[in-house]
Design brief:
The protein is an alpha+beta fold. The chain has 13 helices and 14 strands.
């Protein structure tokens, strides 16, 4: 309350927590009674947890914590009484109920909740049925946002699979070095990048050149499935394989550019042989060496030996296409350094002449209309998409 001293405020918070604890104690008693009366079954629910989550409008995790504690406190009346009096919090009662009664005593008041959880974990004994349930509960979910520019990944693994995945991802993540300007990327990002690399290695046809189709209309550029892509993703596609451009209007195809092998395989092999490894200054990695356009293809960069270089997976996927670093060639073609990108994207120039997909700046008002022609030259033999 306004005007309270720090001590008064702390005492008020503690008193509120005692009230919450007493209310939880009554709730646990009622949940145990509902379980004995088989109310969930009568209401068409499979479990007490499912029934509580729906009837009490609480999250499944909260419902599980409440229902499992309610059942355990039936065999721990001392803890139930302390919770009802507000002597202990619900969190303390929940974790203490998982410790065998012969190992419970007054000492637990001197241990914080996290410490009690470690003690409870040491006392837990898993049966074969517990192992089977843990394995059956394994789950992996992937959810894109509305334009599929980002994906959320979450799930649950059993006690065997979790350490295996953790070890492999961590070891792979440890091979990702620091950025060109010094700082090391966080473990979370490196593990995500490691997962992507492992999936790319295992993907069918990962050693061959993929065909990527892009659709161009008044709104911009998309790949199949409606996913919008920007210049960085397009440049990554241009390094990866073949590109097919289809112009559309109101969902109807108007023109199809000829399929282009952006970097022909013979030229790709020559560049890899010429450079002999990653051309990043001081880099000795030979992991997944790939050919890259020094001047991005989307900005009119030609697909010829002078504009191609070899980069390792880290410098190609993470540094250049992931974080947008630009290549500084002033030290020579075999000692490339990387320049940190600007905080704000610079205005995108419109390139004249030559095939390729160009990202001209849209004029004010109605967007200009991309067009597709089937001209080709020795650079990459692709249909041209330009802005008028």
């Amino acid at each position: 309350m306004r005007g309270s001293t720090p001590d008064q405020l702390e005492q008020e918070l503690l008193a509120d927590e005692a009230i919450i604890a007493a209310a939880r104690a009554r709730q646990l008693v009622n949940l145990a009674l509902a379980d004995q009366m088989q109310l969930p079954l009568a209401d068409g629910c499979r479990t007490l947890k499912e029934w509580a989550a729906g009837r009490l409008d609480i999250a499944p995790d909260t419902a599980y914590q409440l229902t499992s504690t309610a059942r355990r406190l039936l065999d721990a009346p001392d803890l139930a009484a302390q919770l009802a009096r507000g002597d202990i919090t619900f969190d303390r009662a929940e974790v203490m109920s998982r410790i065998p009664s012969e190992h419970r005593s007054g000492w637990h008041l001197g241990v914080d909740i996290q410490g009690l959880r470690r003690i409870a974990a040491r006392h837990r004994r898993l049966s074969r049925s517990d192992d089977h349930l843990s394995h059956a509960a394994m789950d992996l979910n992937m959810q894109p946002n509305l334009d599929e520019s980002r994906w959320s990944v979450w799930g649950e693994l059993d006690g065997y699979s979790g350490p295996v995945v953790d070890k492999v991802l961590t070891e792979k993540a440890d091979t990702i070095g620091p950025m060109p300007d010094g700082p090391r990327l966080g473990l979370g990002y490196r593990r995500a990048a490691a997962l992507t690399a492992l999936c790319e290695e295992s993907a069918p046809g990962s050693t061959s050149t993929p065909l990527i189709t892009v659709f161009v209309d008044d709104r911009g550029v998309e790949v199949p499935g409606g996913t919008s892509v920007g210049p960085e993703i397009l440049d990554k596609v241009a390094c990866a394989g073949s590109l097919e451009v289809i112009k559309t209007s109101e969902g109807r195809p108007l023109a199809v550019g000829r399929r282009s092998r952006v970097i022909p395989q013979r030229l790709r092999r020559f560049i890899l042989h010429r450079d002999g490894g990653c051309t990043g200054d001081g880099c000795v990695s030979r992991y997944r060496l790939e050919v890259h356009h020094v001047v991005p293809w989307s900005e009119g960069g030609p697909t010829d030996p002078e504009n191609l270089t070899t980069l390792c997976w880290f410098h190609h996927h993470v540094v250049v296409h992931g974080f947008g670093y630009r290549i500084d060639t002033r030290l020579g073609p075999s000692r490339l350094r990387f320049m940190k990108p600007a905080i704000h994207d610079p205005p995108t120039p419109e390139f004249e002449g030559g095939p390729g997909l160009r990202w001209g700046s849209w004029p004010p008002g109605r967007p200009s209309t991309p067009s597709v022609s089937n001209s080709a030259d020795g650079r990459n033999g692709t249909g041209t998409v330009s802005q008028h």
